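From: lab user (bench 3)
To: helpdesk
Subject: output format question, protein + tryptophan

Hello, I'm new to running complex predictions and I'm not sure whether the block I got back is the full result or only part of it. Here's what I submitted:
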Amino acid sequence: MTHRENFGSKLGAILAAAGSAVGLGNIWRFPIETGRNGGAAFILIYLACIILLGMPIMMSEFLIGRHTQSNTARAYQKLAPGTPWKWVGRLGVFTGFFILSYYAVVAGWTIEYAILALGNQFSGQTAQDFPRIFTEFSSHPVKPVAWLIAFILLTHFVVVRGVARGIERWSKVLMPMLFIIIAILVVCSVSMPNAVSGIRFLLYPDFSKVDGNVVLNAMGQAFYSLSLGMGCLCTYASYFNRKTNLMKTTAQVCVIDTLIALMAGFIIFPAAAAAGYGLSPDDIGPSLIFITLPNVFQQAFGGLPWLAYVFSVMFYLLLIVAALTSTISMHEVVTSYMAEEFNLPRRRAALIETSASILLGIFCALSFGALKDFKLFDKTIFDIFDWTASNICLPVGGMFISIFAGWYIDRKLFRDEITNGGTIRAPYFKALVFILRYITPLAILAIILNQFGLFRL
Ligand code: TRP
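Helpdesk reply: Thanks, we reran it on our side. This is the complete output you should expect:
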């Protein structure tokens, strides 16, 4: 067994986990889902999912990973030798491979937009031009595929450099920068003329539109945004040291992730309202950040073109970084699994994952252009991947993780891990076990069965 690395510092561990959680899920996907599912009411259900499902499951993943110090499949084998529990880990590895393949498509778009921003291509364009620019690019037969490949290769190189040197160092500097830029953009966006209807959309819930589908989407988004349900944070926690306070880290990651998602909402919707795009993504297609945001930069800093330039360049560069810290975490799940389970050199394991994801990703990239009309259940290849992974694979993974943590793991071991061997207090211990045993698995099951019409909520 090779020596396993550790994150070098407490801050490094938190930022790496937050780096995994914060990404396109917050800035690109959260506004889409919020738009599709009716706004404020969706956000409230989403927040409930973060607290009731997300936090307990994140604790469980941290605990399982740090205790076993192994990749996610081995982790279950160590805690439950000779049982089928290892399949939960394997499901996670599979889901990670799946998600990386289509996630990298959107991540590739961010490279194109960073280059457009660098070349000052947004200047002088109006609100009507941006939808066209996006459609032309995303349906192009070559460009999105090239950027997809570039992005996965970028991920590959960070992953082969290893955990501390690669992942940690990047996260430490760039995450705080992203946060600051986003905060500034919120202020710009909400103060644009006519932004009010966008703000109202985010603040006044209309529960009449809520159905089982909305709840399923909110749950899927919670898992997706927190990187939960596939052993991603479990793998990262295997690099935590014994002093990391698991509960505190959970709370910090959840707060940071949720704040950034909400802030992204407060950038996109007021800005979309101000540009006259309408608030339902049906009006403008599913890619708000690539249409609304370039327009924000032009409008908000119109009087000062250099400021518009600086902001759009910084924003898209940081978005690349935010996406990269997330793709790294997915890649790492598969790479560490293959390296440790099949005894491959890390480099070779990473190469296999990279090639496989590129191959699958190409189909997803083309589903905005050449393969646009190839549909199943009225969804493109990209949408099928996205829907299945986030609404089914992740929640099912999360359900098993909570059952495993609540029912299977020895109570003493559980308490030992969350109190770091009795050195920190954990007054919430009983409540946490109760939630993991009864609330979380039953809620997930009910929401999924409801969707398939097997059960009525
Ligand atoms: N949470 C990340 C985001 O919001 C994406 C991500 C990284 C992810 N690792 C994951 C999603 C594992 C699901 C599972 O962009």
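A quick orientation on your result: Residues 305-341 form the longest helix (37 residues). Let us know if anything else is unclear.
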